[in-house]
Amino acid sequence: MTEATNASTHTIAGTVLTMPVRVRTAHQHTAMFVVDADAAQAMIDYSGLQVCRFARNRAMVVLMLMRYEDTDLGAYYEYGTNVMVNPPGSSASGFSALQSAGAFVHHLPVDQSFTLEAGRTIWGYPKVMSEFTIRGADDPAGVRHGRSFGFDVTIDGQFAVGMDFRPGLPVPAALTGRKQVHSTYSYLDGVTRETPGEMVMTGVRYRPGGVTVRLGDHPYAAELASLGLPKRALMSSSAANVDMTFGDSRVF
Question: What is the mean pLDDT of residues 189-214?
Fold first, then answer.
């Protein structure tokens, strides 16, 4: 991973974090959904960003569960609803536009207070405190052997969203092990931010479909339902480990 020079620092709950923040060990489960672009735009219109449109007014939404183990922010669970958007100022469309699209983080519940404060303060991520119920294996051995996995997210005592993943097929490391450079976008307290990041995944598995989504009574569930969920996923995936860095955000 890239080493920082003249690195900036942030103090969170008395702890000094030097940028970029590093994630050394984390397990990931994701599912990609093709949804109506107008519905996705209505959901994130507050951000001022534009969804990346392709294939007759379609947009891409990615739901994911991360279990962070060894990171500068500690160990925690995190669920994310991510909408693929154009870089600010771009009106690109079509499948080729997805190559330059970034992920706008619309939902981001976590289960630990330190990462909640750091995420909101440093990057403007919309982290909220939540509880996670985990079923099955999200450890490296479980992912490697293709065991089933599921989770539920509860916020303020209300069930928000749950997902159940079926085992995927292993993908050769030569196809997935290269460093990926990406941007995520966030909006909090009237400010839109872009955060650069780098990621290397190992032990990756993919499967067409492969996931069941369950929605609850929390307002997050109503927003997901407005996209047409639950529906069949385009693709689901898991990674035995994700090594990441997050730099300082840029304010628009």
Answer: 96
Q: Is the pLDDT of residue 137 over 80?
A: no
End-to-end alpha carbon distance in the chain: 26
Cross-strand bridge partners of residue 34: 60
Whose tokens are 């690195």? That residue is: 7
Domains and CATH numbers, the chain: 20-251 (2.40.400.10)
Is the dihedral angle over the CA atoms 133, 64, 85, 199 positive or is it negative? positive
Q: What does the pLDDT look like over 12-40, one tens digit per residue?
A: 999 999 999 999 999 999 999 999 999 99
Phi, psi for 141 (deg, rounded to 5): -65, -40
The DSSP string of 68-95 is EEEETT-SEEEEEEEEEEPPTT---BSG
DSSP per residue over 180-234, as a string?
Answer: EEEEEEEEETTEEEEEEEEEEEEEEEEEES-EEEEE-SSHHHHHHHTTT-S---S
For the chain, helix (H) and strand (E) counts, in that order, are 5, 16
Type of residue at 10: H
Long-range CB pairs of 124-127 (<8 Å, 24+ gap) are 124/186, 124/187, 124/188, 124/189, 124/191, 124/192, 124/193, 124/249, 125/186, 125/188, 126/186, 126/187, 126/188, 127/78
Q: Please, is 219 exposed, middle or buried when counting C-beta atoms within 10 Å of its C-beta (0-12, 13-18, 19+)?
A: exposed
In DSSP terms, 118 is beta-bridged to none
pLDDT tens digits for 157-198?
Answer: 999 999 999 989 999 888 787 899 989 999 999 999 999 999
Helix (H, G, I), strand (E, B), or coil: what is residue 238? strand
CA distances from 134 to 78, 79, 110, 131, 137 (A): 12, 12, 13, 10, 8
Q: Could you tell me if 93 and 65 are in contact, meaning their C-beta atoms sit under 8 angstroms apart?
A: no
